[in-house]
Design goal:
301 residues; alpha+beta; Nuclear Transport Factor 2, Chain: A; 6-stranded antiparallel beta sheet; 6 helices; 23% helix
């Protein structure tokens, strides 16, 4: 969306005095770049970053292919965590509002703007649910303008004085394979994901303690964790709906605790749960993990 008068367009290059042709070319280029970014911004809500890998690649190609270079699309396909798009069901990215254009050369621009996110409330009544700053590099390839780089900043808040402040104390772990994301404090920047398997043991009967069910166990590990000084992980058990229902019927059990895992969230395919007595040893950082979990940090799509 073009929300600024021509006077705020910053250009680093200069037109030759007295040449209206060059000035007209600049205006045409600015209009083309603006239309490109606006069209790209309208497509962000159509690409779910929580989709499985192959459907996500297809969706990005179909929706972003007319706006973004193939090289950048390939980068996003290999690392969706750096790709723009719809992260959760609500709020969702509605558009990009352009704040400024800077001409870097005859065939390239830098665009500064904001990704505007809304919910059904803002869609009906107007307004903004959230904003994120975004910087885009746009280059011309023969007669076609394409976005070649996108850098997205942190969400912005509005404090009690009405002043915008960047949210710097929150990061998000997103898992596109199982469809959930987990909010973490900024101090967890550089966290790692440890993958393991939970085992469900038969209860009584002739099977004894045989393993009758298994599933993924993902642990979010603090960046300061070391073998010499381990810290409390955030473990997440992942169940299919059938496995979870079977567990609730006490058809098997996990571990020796007399109580079962605690549900953190679910989607149409999986249930995400916290193991019982996950912090029984009270390692360093267990109080912080308890506080994180009190904030309901896991959201499933």
């Amino acid at each position: 969306m073009h929300l600024f008068p021509p006077s705020v367009l910053a250009t680093s290059g200069k037109s030759t005095p007295g040449t209206n042709v060059t000035e007209n070319q600049d205006k045409a280029s600015e209009a083309a770049v603006t239309a490109l970014v606006d069209g790209f911004g309208r497509k962000l809500q159509t690409v779910s970053l929580l989709a499985p890998s192959e459907p996500l690649k297809k969706s990005m190609q179909e929706n972003y292919g007319d706006f973004v270079s193939q090289e950048l699309l390939a980068q996003w396909a290999n690392d969706p965590t750096n790709a723009p798009g719809r992260q959760v069901s609500s709020p969702w990215p509605d558009r990009i509002e352009i704040l400024s254009l800077e001409r870097l050369a005859d065939s390239s621009y830098r665009v500064q703007g904001e990704i505007i996110e809304i919910t059904s409330v803002e869609k009906t009544n107007g307004g903004v649910a959230a904003k994120r700053p975004v910087t885009l590099n746009v280059e011309k390839f023969e007669s076609r303008w394409l976005i070649t780089a996108v850098k997205i900043g942190a969400y912005e808040n509005t404090n009690t004085a009405g002043t915008k402040t960047a949210v710097v104390n929150s990061i998000v772990y997103r898992n596109t394979q199982y469809g959930f994301y987990f909010s973490l404090p900024g101090s967890w920047q550089g966290y790692s994901i440890i993958t393991d398997t939970w085992k469900g043991l038969a209860i009584g009967g002739t099977q004894g303690e045989n393993v009758v069910q298994t599933g993924p166990l993902l642990s979010i590990r603090h960046p300061q964790w070391t073998a010499q000084n381990p810290r409390q992980d955030i473990p997440i058990l992942i169940f299919t709906l059938a496995q979870w229902n079977s567990l609730q019927k006490e058809e098997y059990h996990i571990g020796a605790a007399p109580i079962g895992p605690k549900e953190l969230g679910r989607n149409s395919k999986y249930v995400f749960a916290l193991p019982a007595r996950y912090n029984f040893a009270f390692p360093a950082g267990f109080e912080e993990v308890e506080k994180i979990l009190e904030g309901n940090p896991l959201h499933a799509d």
